[in-house]
Prior knowledge:
With 320 residues, the protein is an alpha+beta fold. Helix content is 22%, strand content 28%. The chain contains 3 helices and 15 strands. Mean pLDDT is 82; it is low at 121-128.
Amino acid sequence: MLEMMVTLVIFLGVAGIVMTAMMQMTNTQGSVANRTAMHSSVRSATELLQQEIGQAGKIALPTSANGGPTKMVTAITAAQITDPLVGYSGAVVLDKAGGVYTGMLLVVDSGDQEENRRGHEPYCRHEDLYRDFYLTHTANAPVRVAGAFASGIIPPNPPNTLGNPSDGFNLKMYGDINDDRNMVYVVYRCDTAAGAGHHKLTRNVAAYNDATVGSDDIILDNITANPPDPGQTIPAPCFKYQVKSVSPNDYVVDVSVTLTVQSQNLDPQTHQLQQETKALLNVSPRNIFEGWQLAGAGVANRIQPMPPTVGPAALTLSTQ
């Protein structure tokens, strides 16, 4: 009987140790599962942000099948350029006008005959170009676009004078973001305010010339305020910008993104919500960066102006 009691005590002790270890392992696995899900969600969001920031500022025309121009129908002969200082002052037309807006810099012809001219009257069926051509061009000379938007990421205040700028919690960009020759306007909103319905990272996208804006798509629904920057007491913003200026434009050449997310479930060990902060530093909008370099080298005919439809009114509408 004594031996059985000793054996039973030993067995119960071992069983208790095993059960404690199993419970600890279960809790650890729960913590790991929470953190894995949390990490996966924020990683997907930051990868999307990194990709779209990199594409911001890219200019494109629709394909010919979608109404984009490919050629200048009008021929310009040497006899029409009566004064080499004035150039040809007659009207010319393109084969199509899709995607062309007033002020867009179009490249006409190629090689030594290449000229840059601005689009005019964007809603005409056949697109007029501003006049004053100084070189001859055969009929159906090719037409394309080149360069980048200086304001592909709407600069913050200061020095932005465009109105409705990007800020620490609203990232606004436009261009051929999806690399499909369709220009869009995108707004990311990082909402960390207290209360129900907040704690979300959302994305809103619309065609660059579309006045109607759909509802925000939720990218993350578990974000929270970021930890303060060193030496600060208030939460750090989600977006920060490095701005370079080459008159008359401001260029956002670098964006940093900081997002703090929390787990959906309580940690089995601490009984608290877990948090993870993910930071993307030095995300360069490569098209805008190249535009800034061109502007700094004095190449102004590759810096595209902001489309009129992506002005203050459109920006206000897109952030409702």
